[in-house]
Design a protein that fits this description.
The complex is a heterodimer of chains A (about 300) and B (about 230). With about 300 residues, chain A is an alpha+beta fold. Chain A has two domains: about 1-55 and about 165-300, no CATH class; about 60-160, Alpha-Beta Plaits. Helix content of chain A is about 75%, strand content about 10%. Chain A is built from eleven helices and four strands, in the order ααβαβααβαβααααα. Chain A is elongated. The two termini of chain A are about 20 Å apart. In chain B, helix 6 links the parallel strand 7 and strand 8 (about 190-195). Chain B has a six-stranded mixed sheet, sandwiched between helices. A four-stranded antiparallel sheet of chain B has the order 2-1-4-5, with helices on one face. With about 230 residues, chain B is α/β, with parallel strands linked by helices. The longest helix of chain B has 16 residues, at about 170-185. In chain B, helix 3 (about 100-105) crosses helix 4 (about 115-125) and helix 4 (about 115-125) crosses helix 5 (about 140-155). Classes of the chains: A alpha+beta (about 300), B alpha/beta (about 230). The interface of A and B includes residues 209, 211, 214 and 217 of A. Bound molecules: adenosine-5'-triphosphate and magnesium ion. Adenosine-5'-triphosphate binds next to strand 1, strand 2 and helix 1 of chain B.
Amino acid sequence: MLLITLKRTFLSGFQHFKRNGWLSFAVTSILSLTLLIISTLIVLSLAANLVIRNVQDKVDISVYFKSDTPESKILDFRSTVLQYKEVKSSEYVSKNQAFDDFKEKNADNPVILQSLDAIGDNPLNASVNIKAITPDKYDIIATAIQNSAFKDDIIRINYAKNKLVIERLNNILSMTRRVGITLAALFSLIAILITFNAVRITIYAHRQEIEIMRLVGASDRYIRLPFIFEGITYGAISAIFVMFLLFPLIRFAVPHITGAVSVKDVQSDFIHYFWLIFLVQLLVGVGLGIVSSLIAIRRYLKI
Amino acid sequence: MIEFRNVKKIYSAGINTIALDDVNFVIEKEEFVSLVGHSGAGKSTLLKLLYAEEKPTSGQIFFNGEDITQLTPKELPLHRRRIGTIFQDFKLLPRKTLFENVAFALEVSDHSDAEIQELVPQILEIVGLAHKMECYPREISGGEQQRVAIARALVHRPPLIIADEPTGNLDPISSWGIIQLLLKINKLGTTILLATHNKDIVNRVKRRVITLDQGKIIRDHSKGRYAI
Ligand SMILES: Nc1ncnc2c1ncn2[C@@H]1O[C@H](COP(=O)(O)OP(=O)(O)OP(=O)(O)O)[C@@H](O)[C@H]1O
Ligand SMILES: [Mg+2]
């Protein structure tokens, strides 16, 4: 395709955009709204993933052993567990270490420290902390441990603590996704309808020009391309506009949504994904524009 | 250059209209041919077949030996670039200047900007409107508008000019001016096919006249007169 054809058809497509005035404004608004919904969906997913990642890091199974269990046996247990394919890591916490940790944690609580002194002996049990590769594996691991050869040495398996939190988060996330995707699809449809109508009106306004173009021997491509470029312009300008909108929005909205996670993390995640998000916007915006133009051209541009 | 062979055109919109019925003729290079006939005789239809706006129901149409009824959609624009078309209603774009209106025909056929800058003023000079290049169509007279339309049809130097009632809306003096312009272009080597009602013009031109009546050629004289 000749470069000059591209240049000329692009310029006249852009001119359509400029001359359509309020219509272009309406089209850009609805396209921007659609893109905003889609990018909010992306940003929310990113933020939620971050929260889940954070919480997940804190989740583990703690297996407590009876006081008289020899250390060698516990270490044996630790390496056995490590062989499970669901297990990411397992860490041995000895009686003494547990005691130190406990004292440190309660350093500013003299009552507890005093009562520890009163007991004189270390009342804590040795334990092994196990992390699974994914949170849904904890059930399997717990069951496996309960049925293992070590079951008689174990007093307690503690894991249900954080499980609920993660499940809830996952539920919220998948709900948000479902609602978001439905909304995005709905708005995409509306955006296509409006963009399609704008291009249809442009085609109608240029019917005389189109007729003359055909008479003087313009190729089909030359006649159609300006309307495609018009659609592309709507999409591209909307994408750029939304990126400008998204930055401050994230700055102000994210702290309210995520709470637990540091805002900096989300923002740096966003900056990290800036080009990716922009690319998605651009692709979606331009895609919607092209689809709308193609429908309008198919139905109203008789060559 | 042009040959119509047993060309028949039936429009079937609602009722069937036989617009052209077994039309046969040959036009050589550099001829100046007038096509005359009553309203509805099929003049415009014949021209439309030539620039492939319509397809004949049967028969063949040759342009430089090539059957243009068999053109693919890709070849069609290339065929049309070999023909300059002029209409009764000028078909100028109101929002473009005279320069832009003429340049339009070059833009769509991928001429460079440099070529456009050179050719457009040249052709506007030929039709005598170089000084009004930056005007809009509404700012000039009907006769001048028609000359711009001729400039647009000429600017890419097609070997054939088709004119469908180019003088229909003009007073006799402007009309004769347009015809003189066409005669001049013809002298420079461009074939001209002119469809018209205008009896005076046909009689003054004294060139070949093809007369159509109800879709049939009833007369074809080389130094013809308007006689129906
Ligand atoms: N698109 C069309 N659909 C159906 N019938 C048509 C169409 N175009 C022309 N006709 C019919 O074909 C016949 C020839 O029409 P055409 O336009 O060729 O006549 P013409 O000689 O150019 O007439 P005029 O001098 O009035 O311009 C007429 O009867 C007309 O009604
Ligand atoms: Mg006619």
